[in-house]
Design goal:
about 100 residues; mainly alpha; about 0% strand; elongated
Length: about 100
Amino acid sequence: MMLQLADDEGVAASLQDGVKRPRQLRKTLESQPRQVQEQHLRMLDTMGISEDQYWEDYSPPEYRDMLSIERLVNKLTTEMKTNQPDTITSKEQLKADLLTIGFG
C-alpha cells in the first residue's frame, strides 16, 4: 500500500535507484572483518542464492522499495510540518499562550 502511495505521490524510486545502494553496501561488506563476511555468506546459503545473485538480483528491488517508502515518509513529514501550526518552543511560551486563550 505504501509503495502504491509513493507511486501516486510521484516519489517512487526507480530500479536504477535501487541498484546504487547495494553496490555501496557490497563495498562496505568487503572491508568488514572476515567473521562479518562469513556470516553474510551463511545467510546467502540459507537463502539458497549466490553472492552475485543477492547483490545484482535480490537486493535492488528491495532497496528500491525501501527508498520509495523513505521518500514517501519524508514527503508526508514535510507536508505535515508545513501545514502544522507553529510548535511551542518553551514552557514560558506555553504559559503565555494558555493565558491568552483563557486557561489561566
